[in-house]
Amino acid sequence: MAWIYLFAAGVFEVVWVVAMKYAQGFTKPVASVVMIIGMIFSVGLLGGAVKTIPLGTGYAIWTGIGAVGAVTYGMMFFGEPVTALRLIFIAMIVIGLIGLKIVSAH
After folding, report:
1. Could you give the CA distance from residue 105 to residue 55 in angstroms, rounded to a whole number?
2. Where are the domains of the chain?
3. What CA–CA distance (Å, rounded) separates 75 from 4?
4. Residue 99 burial (CB < 10 Å; 0-12/13-18/19+)?
5. What is the pTM of this model?
6. Which candidate, 14, 19, 18, places its Cα nearest to that of 31?
7. Cβ atoms 65, 10 nearer than 8 A
8. Which tens digits make up the pLDDT trace of 2-18?
9. Structural contact between residues 5 and 45, judged by C-beta atoms closer than 8 angstroms
10. Four-residue CA torsion sign, 58, 25, 83, 72
11. Under 8 Å CB-to-CB from 32, ≥6 apart: which residues?
12. 3-state SS assignment for residue 62
């Protein structure tokens, strides 16, 4: 169950980071509320996950999911550049996350 919490925490991290972009410095109320709710769920689920998953592993996977999700969203919806090198480095992050999961004791 902890791994499901961790994955969900990573998804909510992407939600709040994307909402932060839309909130435009807290000038857009709906996006600002979505951002704050996303933060609460993300950190809350992370806290539940690291009760059993090692802290370093949990935190690295949480931030990795957030980073990959934010970069992917940015490329898909904000017109951020899609280059071979960016895709290679994103793949490297994903490989690292999978590796951490494989070698984790839980």
Report:
1. 12
2. 2-103
3. 26
4. exposed
5. 0.91
6. 19
7. yes
8. 999 999 999 999 999 99
9. yes
10. positive
11. 19, 23, 26
12. helix
